[in-house]
Amino acid sequence: MMRIRFKRICWITLFCFVSAMGYAEEQEAEVLETITVTAQKKEENVLEVPISMSVFDDMDIEDKMVETLDDIAKYTPGLTIINMGAPVKYAPSIRGLYSDYTSETSTAGLFIDGVPVTNGLGFDETLMDIERIEVLKGPQGTLYGKNTEIGAVNVITKKPSNETKARITGELGEDNKRILAANISGAIVKDKLYLGVCGKHYEKDGYVENTTTGEPVNDEEHNYVKIYLRMTPTDNLEASLISSYIKYDNGGSSSGSTQAEYRTVSNDLDTFNKSSVWSSSLNINYSFNDSLTFTSITAYRNFNEYLANDFDYTSDPSQKFHIFADSTYETLSQELRANYEVDRINLVSGIYLESSETTYDKDRDKPSGYIDGYSVNSRDSIGLFSHLTYNITDNLSALAGLRYDKEESEESNNDELSPKVGVTYDLLENLMTYVTVSKGYRCGGLTNAPEGSGYSETYDPEIVYSYEIGAKGVLANGKLAWDVALYYMDITDMQVSVYLNAQDFITDNAAEATSKGVEASLRYQVTRGLSLFAGFSYNNTEFDEYNDGFTDYSGNKTTFSPEYNYTIGIQYRAEQGYYASANLSGYGDMYLDLDNEYKRPAYELVNAKIGYETEKYDIYLYAKNLFDRNYDIEGHYYGVYTYYNTPREVGMRATYRF
Hints:
Layout: H1 6-24, E1 36-37, E2 44-45, E3 52-57, H2 58-63, H3 69-73, E4 79-83, E5 90-94, E6 97-98, E7 109-112, E8 115-117, E9 130-137, H4 141-144, E10 151-157, E11 165-173, E12 177-189, E13 193-204, E14 209-210, E15 215-216, E16 220-231, E17 237-248, E18 255-257, E19 264-265, E20 272-273, E21 276-287, E22 292-310, E23 322-342, E24 345-366, E25 369-371, E26 374-391, E27 396-409, E28 413-428, E29 431-442, E30 445-446, E31 458-459, E32 462-475, E33 480-492, E34 495-499, E35 505-509, E36 512-527, E37 530-545, E38 564-573, E39 578-587, E40 590-591, E41 599-600, E42 603-613, E43 617-624, E44 633-635, H5 636-639, E45 641-643, E46 649-657
């Protein structure tokens, strides 16, 4: 049962109205701006796209102080980012399906300026100078391919233009948080060549104490830089080269033993995380005419996981469990795509090529000895896809898409078809309805099961068939936008993490599962400057049949999937420069194990922000997790581990524009 604390809802509402209503009186209401997205690899009004999706433009990202995708999840119905105790250990959970950060495959894909992130590592990506974030829910395999079986996240960077823009931002917060960020963009050659550069330095003290040293164990520090070179040599040709690099210099993880005192460990190892990510993409667009456009996206990503962790959290040699990693995950991809639009036809077709290599070097130091875990795995894949939308009448459209993916690796070969069909119908001028049926899949691989464990050496692809009905519209003379979607999914060969003990786990296939739920959101422009937003999702995902030979889990809930999440927020931006906002985000119960013995209880968070804005500078006071709510993941690995949540953070941010 939902545990919404209505006193807090009243507090947050009162806070914002006291701050804002004095300036809102006698102002005329404005209509909402039209949001253009590229979810179907073409530009469209978000209200005309037959996909359940949440979109955040550059102003949303600034107002909500979005630094990573975890910040976006708090405002997205149906999306949860699970944090397993370290910056690089974030993974998505959508519509009841979750992919562990240790997996080489993901249930949802992340695409940053065309660079694909389709494994379990990367969902903590630093977001800076972003134009738009699109969160697509439901299978996206037809246009995006493997490992987008339940969703995709598109991140699009702002394009540099003829206008010279520059700014610097500083931030101070609790736990000695310090941020210094800057960006500049403009034309090198007017109308032909443009450059954008941004960088960020981040530091924050840890909040988990190592009782052996008396020092915090989970300090955070990273440096990030991004370069965007854009060329428009002719009216028909545009090319962009975008490259980014982030280097972490963190301490250990923010996790501990359930047996230890709260937020303490007793490590006898100097833990660190010095991982790095380098990604680049070359995007070329050429318009032959108003009807035909050609697109090429060449992308490269290199993730180096370099760390040392003490996972026994004690100084007892008999309990020693130390992990050392120096692994590299490389992906090189090429997409060639053509968009054709004429009369009532819109066709997107293309080919996708990918080559990836994982150099897995993760060693374990245990009382029984040192275990060297080294392997090199390569994967090569090809995808052919086509997606057609045909406008039968002015109100009725049909869509059909098909993708064929083939992947080859040393351990297995996979080939899958990802079809999608649907119908959209405009009941009214500002009311679109749709029905879609689609298939998504997640690649199989090696289980790495110990000899004699009784588990297979490989696991199969996970298959999802999704049935969705939805509606989107605008009311109140263009001031209120809303959307709702209901879905039902059949899942076969569901991939699950099986924990053999406190130190070993594998990936296995469950037999069958069913997921069903609803997602809804709205945005309301009450007056000029005053707006409200809200979102809600409910999901129920259960194993229909799953018996691993030891235990029958049929009827149990899947892991790391909150039963519901919601967000309610209010924001006011006055013409005089005053700004105020606050929001409440809540999550339902979430099970941590297949037996449904351990769970994270329902919780809610409050964020608030007030400030003053001018043409040249902005200054804000903010609070994240204002009431210091505890939402630790306690009892993972069948009661062994706790992953500590970030405590309350109060701080100040200032921006100056040149």
